[in-house]
Each structure stands twice: as structure tokens, then as C-alpha cells.
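DM from R.C. (forwarded with permission)

"hey, sorry to bug you on a friday — could you get me a structure for this? deadline for the figure draft is monday and I only need the backbone to look sensible"
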Amino acid sequence: LIGPLATVRYAIEHFATSGRRDVVLIGSSACLTPMPGLGIYSASKRGLQAAFDSMRLELAHLGINVSHVVPGMFITEGLIEKVPVDGDKPQTDAAVFVDGGRPAPVEGLVDTITFLLGLPDGVAVNEIVVRPTGQLRT
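My reply, with the result:
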């Protein structure tokens, strides 16, 4: 939670004074639909979501766009390394994917972020949830 916010605080001091300027925070859909055993992770991502909204308001007068990208399960280093579980993970019957569903290649997420950064001046997508089609939870 603190790392992205500290990074943005430092980075905006180095932004150009005109032209398109964007801050893109990458969260997690765990802020929307927490899973058993991931309470601390989900809480940090929900905190980032709240901080994003404040940051959007604080930077609007400077003409800086702020976007919060909320990805589901994409094949990234974070997914491969696995999110740390808070203690013993309780058993759940809740499916994460439809039958045959699985994490998506990261390129779809990259394309979404590229789209956000390519919008015309004066237009921003403030928050977007991007999930693989078959993802049901988190």
C-alpha cells in the first residue's frame, strides 16, 4: 500500500508541466471479492483503491489523470509466485473460474493499460476492472 503511494509522491514532482500526464495504479480484484485466507492482501488492495480516489481528487487541479486498474488473474510473476496466505487457508467450495477457465495471458492487461494512456488529453478512465472471461471470483 505505501510503496505505490510513495512512488507517486516522488514521481509527480518530475512530471512535465503540460501535456498528457498519467498516474496508473495497479491494484487487484481481491479488493472487490476477497477470498478466505487473503484478508491482509485484500485489505491492502482495498486501501490502495481508497488512496487512488483521494489522489485523483488531489491531482485533478494539476491536470494529472489518475487511473486505478483492477486486474483479475493474469499470468504474471505475482500469480506465479503466489499471493501469501494469512495463516492456514480455510477450505471453500467457491469456484474461482468456470469449468475450463484459467488465468489469462498478461497481454490483454497490457493492452488495457496502453488504451488508458492513449486517450485524448482531458479524458481519463478513473477505474477499470479487467478479468479473464471465465473468472468468477477475486
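R.C.: lifesaver. The chain has a mean pLDDT of 89.
me: no worries. Helices lie at 2-12, 39-60, 77-81, 107-117.
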